[in-house]
Amino acid sequence: MGRSQETFRKKENIKKREQKKKDKELRKENRSSQSDKGKSLEDMLAYVDENGNLTTEKPAEFRKQKINVEEIQISTPKMVEEDDVHKGKVKYYNEQRGWGFINNEFGERVFFLIAEAPASIKVDDVVNFRTRKGPKGLQAYEIQVV
Predict the structure, then answer these.
(1) CA 128 to CA 112: how far, in whole Å?
(2) With 90 as the cut, is the pLDDT of residue 4 above it?
(3) Can you give the residue ranges of the CSD domain (predicted)?
(4) Which of 65, 95, 101, 143 might form a disulfide with 117, Cβ 3.0–4.6 angstroms?
(5) CATH: 3.40.640.10, 2.60.40.1120, 2.40.50.140, 2.40.110.10. Which one for 86-145?
(6) How far apart (Å, rounded) are the C-alpha atoms in residues 90 and 102?
(7) How far apart (Å, rounded) are the C-alpha atoms in residues 105 and 109?
(8) How deeply is 125 buried, as exposed, middle or buried, from its count of CB atoms within 10 A (0-12, 13-18, 19+)?
């Protein structure tokens, strides 16, 4: 008589495969029992209360606020140009080239040309000026020595 063709290793592999099938079947049943499919629409809805929190209860009608649709503004407001007079100190001035820099009250350097400044301007003068956008940044104009 010959030996059995089923060795211990083969038996163990068969047991493992059967165990995997059972585990897979259990997972399948768990997924189907915990599934959200088949719930009614009311069970799946979430509501937002007056504080912005999600709730499962429908909000009460008396707590709702009436909003007038005409009061809602959709357009963006126009940007108001600031044309305020700034105060600063002349930190650099090149008389031969005709330009310089003013440090304003915020510590920013503002470029200026001699055409926009009085002839008597010099370094360390305290000045009042207005600013506008130049080709390379802020530029001072209407400069007056204080």
Answers:
(1) 12
(2) no
(3) 85-145
(4) 143
(5) 2.40.50.140
(6) 4
(7) 10
(8) middle
The more confident residue out of 88 and 62 is: 88
Rounded percentage of the chain residues whose pLDDT exceeds 90: 42
Is 112:141 a contact under the CB 8 Å cutoff? yes
Residue 28 DSSP label: H
Q: Is the pTM of this model over 0.90?
A: no
Write down how long the chain is: 146
Q: pLDDT, tens digit, for every residue of 38-59?
A: 677 777 888 888 788 888 888 7
Check: CB of residue 110 under 8 Å from CB of residue 129: yes
| 131 strand-pairing partners | 140
